[in-house]
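Subject: design request, 339 residues
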């Protein structure tokens, strides 16, 4: 008898659960809506919402996979940290146009990083191409790929409510979904031309970031500077991802959080591949001179054929930017929770 009662309760609650979906979790589409635009209006930005939407509305999606006007659709519940309506991000110091026509419009998905500020620097730029590699007849320059990584990461961080400075900028190149990125030397350091001599180049970005940090440090609970590079080593060496930290504990701890989070993602998505990323201290001018906790990341070896395959694939560049964003959110939680 008792068992029967339990079974009935389970069956009943299983049947009843859709009834607990409140009125605001359903909506009618508007003219021209597809699943993506419908979800975006409800600030469900992450692509995993599409799958959830299809599961919830499997009997209401039409034969072409689209939405029907006049049909009401269930809206997937918000993931932890995501919010509706989209939070307003005020005083964002970076113009969205920098991300290019295709990527300049985006909604803020969460306020997970609302008290965080980032100085994102792509390594090299201007007269300095960084490492150079050749594929077929093409010459590829490290700085163009650094910049693409930097933009993808900066945009992601902004989508989670962070204040983000894109320190090295190129007004002509947004995020590029291309394998072969055209070379140019029009990058600037926040609008100033990048000088020719190496020490002047590094000093320029350090001075700019340190000036900003002086103004920002009282305003935010979490501030990090990150410079992105692609290493240039012996072509036989496959390296995945290397992180270098400056001589201070915040920089070191953040580097380890980044590494551990990215390691988790590799184990999840490419379990057979093995991750050989590493974290170490390095006495580099940039890391030594920057006042905010600074990290340098090397995304693979530009001369290694397998590393280069990953670097050239725009989906992979986006995946790495996504993993780094998650890692920064984890690190932010670690720091803000402990204060
Ligand atoms: Zn470099």
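Subject: RE: design request

Done. Sequence follows.
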């Amino acid at each position: 008898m008792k068992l029967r009662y339990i079974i009935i309760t389970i069956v009943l609650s299983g049947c009843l659960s859709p009834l607990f979906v409140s009125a605001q979790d359903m909506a009618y589409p508007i003219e021209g809506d597809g699943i993506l635009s419908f979800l975006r209006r409800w600030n469900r930005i992450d692509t995993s919402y599409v799958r959830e939407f299809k599961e919830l509305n499997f009997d209401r999606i039409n034969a072409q996979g689209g939405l029907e006007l006049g049909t009401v659709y269930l809206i997937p519940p918000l993931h932890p940290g995501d919010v509706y309506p989209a939070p307003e991000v005020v005083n964002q110091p970076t113009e969205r146009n920098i991300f290019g026509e295709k990527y300049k419009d985006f909604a803020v998905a969460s306020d997970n990083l609302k008290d965080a500020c980032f100085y994102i620097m792509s390594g090299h730029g201007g007269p300095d191409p960084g490492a150079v590699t050749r594929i077929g007849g093409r010459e590829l320059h490290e700085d163009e790929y650094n910049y693409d990584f930097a933009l993808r990461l900066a945009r992601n961080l902004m989508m989670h409510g962070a204040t983000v400075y894109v320190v090295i900028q190129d007004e002509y190149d947004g995020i590029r979904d291309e394998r072969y990125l055209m070379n140019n030397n029009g990058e600037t350091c926040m609008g100033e031309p990048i000088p020719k001599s190496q020490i002047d180049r590094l000093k320029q970005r350090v001075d700019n970031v340190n000036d900003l940090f002086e103004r920002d440090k009282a305003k935010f609970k979490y501030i990090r500077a990150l410079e992105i590079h692609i290493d240039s080593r012996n072509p036989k060496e496959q390296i995945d991802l290397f992180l270098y930290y400056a001589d201070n504990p915040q920089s070191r701890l953040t580097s380890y959080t980044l590494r551990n989070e990215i390691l988790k993602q590799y184990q999840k998505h490419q379990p057979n591949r093995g991750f050989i990323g590493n974290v170490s201290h390095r006495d580099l001018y940039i890391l030594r001179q920057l006042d905010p906790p600074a990290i340098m990341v090397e995304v693979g070896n530009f001369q290694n054929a397998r590393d280069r395959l990953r670097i050239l694939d725009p989906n992979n560049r986006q995946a790495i930017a996504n993993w780094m964003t998650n890692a920064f959110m984890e690190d932010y939680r670690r720091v803000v929770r402990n204060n």
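The chain has two domains: 18-74, 96-337.
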